[in-house]
Amino acid sequence: KGTRIINVSSEYGQLANLSEAYRAAIQAVEDPFDFFHAIKFDASDKRMQQLQVPAYRLSKACLNRATQLFAKRFFNEHVSVNSVCPGWIATHDMDAPRTVEQGVASIMAVAKPEGSGLG
């Protein structure tokens, strides 16, 4: 019932993985279209230098915040907005614990309308 928006995120997008400066900047954004102006990647940030794939983590954290903002914005219009983390998926030549089918099932569990028989 209603429209669903499903953003595919990652556990790398958890705010706890980012430096305090990035956490504060992301949480301060109130318009989901402002991320390009509000968040600037700082390669000199020591905390970010210690992380694997820092830009990926930052992009997923911004996606999670945008999901929160869109969910709030569309709540009264009966639009469901969620993020889902399908886990680390074995794609291409990556040796990961989950299959593509398992990842898709995670997303479909959130996306399928109740009682539709889909999924």
Structural commentary:
The chain has 119 residues and is mainly alpha-helical. Helices cover 42% and strands 10% of the residues. It contains five helices and two strands. The chain has helices at residues 20-28, 35-38, 46-49, 54-74, 100-111; strands spanning 3-8, 79-84. It has a two-stranded parallel sheet with strand order 1-2. Mean pLDDT is 81; it is low at 115-119.
List keywords for this structure.
single chain; mainly alpha; two-stranded parallel ribbon; 5 helices; 42% helix; disordered C terminus
Summarize the structure.
Helices cover 42% and strands 10% of the residues. The protein contains five helices and two strands, in the order βααααβα.
Approximate shape: flat
Average residue pLDDT = 81
SS class? mainly alpha
Span between N and C termini? Answer: 15 Å
How do the strands and helices of this protein lay out in sequence?
Layout: E1 3-8, H1 20-28, H2 35-38, H3 46-49, H4 54-74, E2 79-84, H5 100-111
Parallel strand pairs: 1-2
